[in-house]
Amino acid sequence: FNIRRDNAMEKAVKGIKKLIAAKKVKEAEKELPKVYKAIDKSVKIKFLKENAGARYKSRITLALNKAKAVK
User: Cα separation of 35 and 68, whole Å?
Assistant: First the structure.
């Protein structure tokens, strides 16, 4: 079960990072809730610690906001 949760979270995070790198801000904004959901579920089952989950979400949001500002 942990492997499934890890794969889902990693896939979501990698997907949004690729969108941000490709300057596809609109699509990345649509994916953000899915990424948050995957991270929150990983925290809920104690796969990630709470602060680690918050750190992931914070860094993704910062990267997205930075990409928006450049646009």
Answer: 18
